Amino acid sequence: MHLSTYLGLLHSAENSLAEAFGQVGRHHADEPDVEHLCQTLGEKAAGHVESLGPFLARYGEHREDEPDRLRAAEFSGTRSGGVGLLRDLQDLYALASFVDVTWTVVGQAAQGVPDADLLKTVQNCQTDTRTQLSWLQTRIKQAAPQALIVAK
Amino acid sequence: MDSADRVENVWGARTPHERGTAWPVRVDQELAVAEAEVDRWVQSACVLCSNGCACDIAVKDGRMVGVRGRAVDRINHGRLGPKGLYASWQWSDQDRLTQPLIRTAEGLRPASWDEAMDRIVEESKKRHPLQHGFYTSGQLFLEEYYTLGVIGKAGLGTPHMDGNTRLCTATAGASLKETFGSDGQPGSYEDIESCDALFLFGHNLAATQTVLWARVLDRVEGPDTPAIVVVDPRDTPTARMAERTGGVHLAPLPGTNLALMNGLIHELIEHGHVDEEYVARHTIGYDELVAAVAAYEPKQVAEICGVNAVDVQRAAEIFGTSERVLSTVLQGFYQSHQATAAACQVNNLHLLRGLIGKPGCGVLQMNGQPTAENTRECGADGDLPGFRNWANQHHIDELSTLWNVDPLKIPHWAPPTHAMQLWRYVEQGSIDFLWISATNPAVSLPELPRIRDILDRDGLFLVVQDGFLTETAEHADVVLPAALWGEKQGTFTNASRTVHLSDQAVDPPGEARSDLDIFLDYARRMDFRDKDGQPLIGWSTPEEAFEAWKECSRGRPCDYSGLTYDALRGGSGIPWPCTDDNPEGTDRLYPDSVFPTDSYVCEDFGHDLLTGGSTTPEQYKATEPAGRAFLKAATFQQPPEWISSGYPLIATTGRSPYHFHTRTKTGRSRKLRQAEPSVWVELSAADAADLGIAEGDRVRVESERGWMEGPARIGRVRPGVVFVPFHFGYWDSTDRGRTAANEFTLTEWDPVSKQPLYKVAAVRVRPSG
């Protein structure tokens, strides 16, 4: 059964996402909404890592280096300025999208097992992930014209 | 006629009456000359709070000499408050700007209008539309906001237009949009006459709208007193009335309103005070609401908020069992943490019981400023005109047809820029043309040390348009002298949708011009044109601008199409919507509980209340709202700033009944100046004792960002909390001491309404000797 592989993938991806939100929030502290909401949303990702605990115990955890590679590719640290903020938010978006679709995969497996507890966790966590994506998209759309056209 | 001194007796003589009967008339008047000497009376309404009390201005020898409440008007039934009586016109010949000023190396020097406007146009033409920002006010007239809105959206094409209404009324608009699909005040002031319970959420009504409080007092003194419930961390005259009427005063720690509201909803559900049939028929999201508040047991709420669990239960019981409940909400919620979510929970309380759209039952999401409602309607505040939805192409097309411009010209790729973001762009230099009209951000915005730096930024071209040389105007490159109230004509709409006409009583001083004339002059010089090469703006008088606005509002929730200047003269103000079929206007919205949530109608597709993430049009349509209201909720989060060992107290800012905003007018009234001459700092007795501070001692209040000083007043706030009024800036300061509360406030805002947080700053206090 490869569910353990995917739980491991999710575990590391949520960890990376939590860390990346924290990093972007701290780096862009001059944007108070970014600082504050990155912290709130990063805490949600960290909470997901905790709620995975019982299932990692139930199914085991097989860690691949996939999400770390993803992180290396998509989130290599923060940048500055208007365009820098835009790119950092875009990286978070890519990472959160990866988390989102990984929850979808795990949710499919949870139905196949079937495991009602896991399914409920998937639903709750994926709602949060969609909130993360929705905020990122909203903030990116707001920032883009100013950053690309007239930012100094 | 009530002639008592209204500094001592703020609310005037009582006129008690029974529930369900009309509020008696009491005409208030203040005259600087004998009544027989008055040449003429000119119709207007007061602009010193959001109540908008109708009045007539007395004129003698071409000067304003007095004011009298209009008995026929539905808003005030003849009354005026201390600000209206003593500061309506008394400033008119003091320190006025009478000619344009231009900055040179030596400072500001007088200039001609041509020179000043040419300079502005030259700077404007050098720049991309996105480098322009407009920061306006809650003090202009409807005609001026609409004209400015068209200039920004169809002339220049910049989304960077907002005003200090963001600081006062943004959450009112946002919470109405989230719950009901569109802005629009559901309730009516007349609900005071028939309610059985009155809930004041973060609303110190006795100080902020004194005439409305007089209306409440006349019920309190009458035979069937409504129970009053007050949510406020301070012990105020408003809060004391809660005890007297058998209600409750809840004094939650600043920043915890949402936990309290979730607790009230929880109790309502727990005790079966839910009209299930109404909820099923007229709302969406009940199950999610139940889940969201499940953890907010009274004990839990008591712990978070620092209140008694029994008080939470009692307040919920009053809400749940009173036949007719009226709620009002203001800055204690709007300027605090999780503002929109907390304000939405007030809407939810009413929806759960079906108490909306009926006499005595309603929600009043209030405003602070007199014309704030019009910025929201006309699109000068970061919304599109006529409560149109920036994410609805159909609405954009309506505007592009109305204005005869390419739809792409109208910036609608994202929500229009909110004020706090606009200032951030100025700070970063991507906006370097900033035009401020009729407001004073150098005193009113949070974190003033930062704001002063931004105003002085190299490369920023700053235009300030005002009646006085304010703290903000001192930083300007060009200062434009503006006509003020009584010196120009226009309409404005109060917090309960009632439209008043304010006629011109006297000429402006010197070369000062109305804000409308200034904006029209800019549009002419910029040569803004429509698709056919015709001038974009085809009007030149206030009445023509009003007629243009009527077309823009036609068919929208804020429909003005049945109003005319003539209809507004002689009688009472008229509440919108007002159409040809309904010329008397509309007392209260939603009598049939059909809400403007249909996706073709709604002003906004809504947000996640925790983060402000936008709901997409597809997600919105999938909920099939079809006229049902949204029961939205969020969980309580810790405020962004909280006490620490270095900053162990929470500071909150607020208002005095004697002053308005940064006192540009009320500070020039001798009576009001005497009533409240300078700033003060309120501390609880326990905190004062710990700090070794006695009544009247000079203290310093300091946050990580800045500090101010003032004498201590002891005993009106709850322990752990410091209160400082925000009115006291520097234009009349003699010793240049730091007196502005916003020296210490923080740059944070609500994720949905984007209203800044003035009510939760971690500070320390010490004697300053």
From TrEMBL, chain A:
This is DUF892 family protein. It comes from the Bacteria.
UniProtKB/TrEMBL annotation, chain B:
PANTHER family: NADH-QUINONE OXIDOREDUCTASE SUBUNIT G, RESPIRATORY NITRATE REDUCTASE. Transmembrane segments: none annotated. Belongs to the prokaryotic molybdopterin-containing oxidoreductase family. NasA/NapA/NarB subfamily. GO terms for molecular function: 4 iron, 4 sulfur cluster binding; metal ion binding; molybdopterin cofactor binding; oxidoreductase activity. Keywords: 4Fe-4S, Iron, Iron-sulfur, Metal-binding, Molybdenum, Nitrate assimilation, Oxidoreductase. It comes from Kribbella turkmenica. Residues 39-95 form the 4Fe-4S Mo/W bis-MGD-type domain. Its cofactor is Mo-bis(molybdopterin guanine dinucleotide); [4Fe-4S] cluster. Gene3D superfamilies: 2.40.40.20, 3.40.50.740, ADC-like domains (2.20.25.90), Dimethylsulfoxide Reductase, domain 2 (3.40.228.10). This is Nitrate reductase. GO terms for biological process: nitrate assimilation. It holds the Pfam family Molybdop_Fe4S4. It comes from the Bacteria.
